[in-house]
Amino acid sequence: MRDQPGFAAGHALALFTILIWGTTFISTKILLVDFTPVEILFFRFAIGYIVLLLIYSRPVRTKSLKEELLFIFAGLCGVTLYFLLENVALTYTLASNVGVIVSVAPFFTAVIAHFFLEEEKLTAPFMIGFVIALAGILLIGFNGSFLLKLNPLGDLLALLAPIVWAVYSVLMRKIGALQVHTIGATRKVFFYGLAWMAPALFLFDFRLGLDRFGQISNLGNLLFLSLGASAMCYVTWNRAVSVLGAVKTSVYIYIVPVIAVAASALILDEKITWAIVAGTILTLTGSFISERKPKPSLKERSITS
């Protein structure tokens, strides 16, 4: 039986993290005026890494190459690929669109965990919910491509982001089982994320441009992303995953669309169309249905009674 206080703390950490992450699309969208996607990514995690190093400087040692590879690929998926896809997507589409689309991450997490972790099996309600949520995502794509005449590439990149995040969640579940320090493990993932990011700095138009940090808006949003959404929230999220598991923790991502859509309308003055509202409702409905557990059969009830 799980330790109830620890279980409750895991839920609290996951909820806190999502409340912060739900507004990161807004900060990134604002920063994209003066920064390129890869610049935001690099500055965000470089600052986050330094902060985590100051908090916990002890090295995190692994016992084998297999364990080290967990950190290497967690850095690739959870830092470099996910946020590069998300940041580039925001240059083509609305922050509200990206916020809703990435909320399908729990579906992909459940599918990958089904094959690589001893998690719960996929059920009929899960598959029905997935189809409904996918219909919502397609409607949001219709909203961007046809109603608002946006480049559909943005919504496609946003859809790829939760797939790599699902892989990251499963990898962090395995890392959590290694009983390593949460902050140290997060710092190690950031390190490999920055290492994977290095080639992209040469491929894309990267420059230090320190004069841009003199603007309060740029500095504030970058510090929010690096200190709050990265250094702090990655630690709280990874801790929640280690306590609750990859699938249960990912369910909290369902809250992201509500926060993202509301914040986009209030802060960025993005137009909320009938398609984005209907798509959000479908996505959330599908998410709710997917989490419903089938009633045990009479035989199963008799066995457990």
From TrEMBL:
The UniProt family comment states: Belongs to the EamA transporter family.
Domain of life of the organism encoding this protein: Bacteria
Where this protein primarily resides, as one coarse class?
membrane
Question: What organism is recorded for this protein?
Answer: Paenibacillus haidiansis
* Residues annotated as domain EamA: 10-141, 153-289
InterPro entries for the chain: AA-Vitamin_Transporters, EamA_dom, EmrE-like
Q: What is this protein called?
A: DMT family transporter
- Listed transmembrane segments: 12-32, 38-57, 69-85, 97-117, 124-144, 189-210, 216-237, 249-268, 274-291
Check the UniProt entry and state the signal peptide residues, or none.
none
**What does the UniProt keyword field contain?**
Cell membrane, Membrane, Transmembrane, Transmembrane helix
Q: Where in the cell is it found?
A: Cell membrane
Q: How does it sit in the membrane?
A: Multi-pass membrane protein
